[in-house]
Amino acid sequence: MNRDALRRALENADLTAYQAKAYLTLIDNGRLSAVDVAEKATIPTSQIYKTLRSLEGMGFIEIIEQDTLHAEPRDLTAVQSQLRKRGALLSDAADELEERWTRPTANEHRVSVVKHAETVIERVRDRLSEVAVSAELSVTMEQLITLGPDLMAAAERGVVVHVSVYDDDDVTQRCRDADLLDSPIEIRVASIPGPFLAILDRRSTYFTPNDRADETYGVLIEDEILSFINHWYFRTCLWDVSPTVDAVPSGRMTYLSLEEFLRDIGPLYHQGATISVTIVGCTGKSDRTNTVHGEISGLFYPGVLEGIESPSLGQLSTFSTVFIDTDETRYSVGSWGAVFEDIEALTIRIDDIVFPSQPSTDGTERSEIAGTRADDS
């Protein structure tokens, strides 16, 4: 079916000529500004905003408020349903639309605002299939159940997933019923309700306010600096102060925050423990990741010279460095945005902790803390 036939089919499904032309243009091109839609679809500029608003009201497209008004097609369910009610010709048109339509990919805009909160949830679900390193989320129990399969799939392929769930009457049982407690996901319970927030691979942030907000909207952020700010909100307000649901997942303990790692491991290191870790991080100014295995050989942070073994997150927000000795060399490891260190840590996994004062078969006693908090060891 050619484009003209497809346009006529849309008009037969109660779309005006302008609506059909504008919708087809968005299907073929993805997200466009209103001016670009008018130009590509040959619609008068005086009519384009009214046309796009009407398509949004029909559930066919999403309006994005940026410096200028943009639009992109929504899921095809609404338009396909309307088309298929009109018989064989319109059913063929719906199938053709499905072949032509592809979900818009992340664009060059760093910050976008959408009208519908569900658009943010859908975008997070799509992005979770692409996440490579980390995912930090604050969600309601219902949102966790909705995203659960996608989060588990990400965790099972090695992504470190930390989820803060807003307090529910029986969050532990509901997590157990959803098989989330048997997954590699670490879940904590936040006592104060807050927004939906997802920070993926340190570069993408997705936000919607909670139910008490005056209006619904969503914010899509593709920016590392703004994601860093949201990461610290997540760590200080939702993660560090919240208890873990039931138990930490089985397996070796992995951190997404160098600061949290230092708070837990500092007392053990200063007591003389030998701590073996695996660090995945970026080297230099490139996005290329590198994996380093070795033993902690030094810690440097505010107060270390005064004998402070477990510094606060506030102190660590200024500077913090971990030194690691491998078989070949010594690396300095910094936190998010590291400038002077050799490696910017993305994940830190504790492989082993050895206390040399207690004998075992090889002269030391190994005290692995996999599955437990370090300060409980």
Automatic annotation (TrEMBL):
The keyword Nucleotide-binding does not apply. Residues 363-377 have a biased composition (Basic and acidic residues). Transmembrane segments: none annotated. SUPFAM superfamilies: TrmB C-terminal domain-like (SSF159071), Winged helix' DNA-binding domain (SSF46785). Residues 10-67 form the Transcription regulator TrmB N-terminal domain. CDD domains: PLDc_like_TrmB_middle. Residues 111-351 form the Transcription regulator TrmB C-terminal domain. Signal peptide: none annotated. It comes from the Archaea. Keywords: Plasmid. Belongs to the transcriptional regulator TrmB family. This is TrmB family transcriptional regulator.
